[in-house]
Amino acid sequence: MARTMFRFRVRPDLLDEYREAHAAVWPEMLRALHETGWRNYSIFTAPDGEVIGYVESDDITAAREAMSALAVNERWQAAMARYFAGAGPDERLVELNETFHLETQLAAADGRPIAVDRQAQPRDYPVGR
């Protein structure tokens, strides 16, 4: 399962509301994320509005595409639009490259097989797409 981390920015003046919205994500949205292949998904926020997301998925591109086809995702993105700095929920997010993974390096140091599934280059995605 591949690990993916990404970042984007929300309006700092609405950060508390953004956090509150994510403390009570709609059950239908939670199920949709799970059913489309999102696993161990976490969102972290900084006081300046920077948001870091982490997700594990067999195929993040397929998982994103599956979510983008769902009506619940369209409703969620519309509800979240006000929190985004810039033009709205279409603001670009940047996928980050994994630079270090403890378990992978420990396996290599111990001579165990290594299962590495990383992206060679970061990708940009519109938020909510």
Automatic annotation (TrEMBL):
One of its GO terms (molecular function) is racemase and epimerase activity, acting on carbohydrates and derivatives. Pfam families: rhaM. It comes from the Bacteria. InterPro entries: Dimeric_a/b-barrel, Rham/fucose_mutarotase. This is L-rhamnose mutarotase. GO terms for biological process: rhamnose catabolic process. The lineage of its organism: Bacteria, Bacillati, Actinomycetota, Actinomycetes, Micrococcales. PANTHER family: L-RHAMNOSE MUTAROTASE.
